Amino acid sequence: MANPAKDSADALAGRGIVITRPTGQAAELAALIRAAGGKPILFPVLEISDIGDLKPLHALIDRLDGFDLAIFISPNAVNKAMNLIAARRTLPAGLRIAAIGRGSVKALARFGVASVIAPAGRFDSEALLELPEMKSVAGSRVVIFRGDGGRELLGDTLIARGATVQYAECYRRSKPDVDTGPLLKAWARNELHAVVVTSSEGMRNLFDMVGKLGQSWLQKTPVFVPHPRIADAARALGLAQVHLTEAGDEGVLAGLRRHFSRAT
Fold first, then answer.
1. Cβ pair 194, 17 in contact under 8 A
2. The whole model's pTM is what?
3. Residue 251: phi, psi to the nearest 5?
4. Closest alpha carbon to 220 in 199, 197, 264, 190
5. Nearest Cα to 227, choosing from 239, 244, 240, 207?
6. Which is nearest to 123 in space by CA: 28, 228, 31?
7. b/e per residue, 124-136, with b = 16+ CB within 10 A?
8. Among 35, 5, 39, which Cα is nearest to 258's?
9. Residue 176 near residue 46, CB atoms below 8 Å
């Protein structure tokens, strides 16, 4: 009789799994996949860089005492902003801190920030806005640390609830210029069995970067995403095998194991 636990544990053996996170942010997931017997293939589809003019951000950091709440959109926002803050000052004692996902909470903990307002289940702006602390914000002054551009839902909703909101753009996102040759060769040799994409922008970048040949393979390859919005972006590009996982590295790994345990 088959052992379901063993089948799940062995499901990734020999599977080539592409991780599309930015350089330096894929190590934990890659280690989990490798420990499960899989072969992580790093192919970053987003490049994270510093903003050109830091003066406005420095000025905002210097007046953090004037804010009641600071929200960090992503681990990138945490790392970029907190390093700049640490170089100039300490966080005001009365400043409440909020974040959207587990990765941001972990990143804040590395800077000694232990008390963080964050959703416990779904990890997006909508989930954060459902928390009681985000509903009683009338008269509050809020700063949102984020990358350039991005969704306005969080800020617009807080403004509608009576808060004053200022954005602090602390990094830039761009499409990296990378050699797709090794990735395409792995596809051609049937060494690439799944792709993990963790943002809608990254999904669109990946589709563009691999070109027509890669797109034809991508449309047939299982793609694993941790949020319905990314799944929608993938399906809009014509991808046929889109699998929604739970959030976080462990959630992605569990989704991969479930899929390939059924495939074996």
1. yes
2. 0.82
3. -65, -40
4. 190
5. 244
6. 228
7. bbebbbeeeebee
8. 5
9. yes
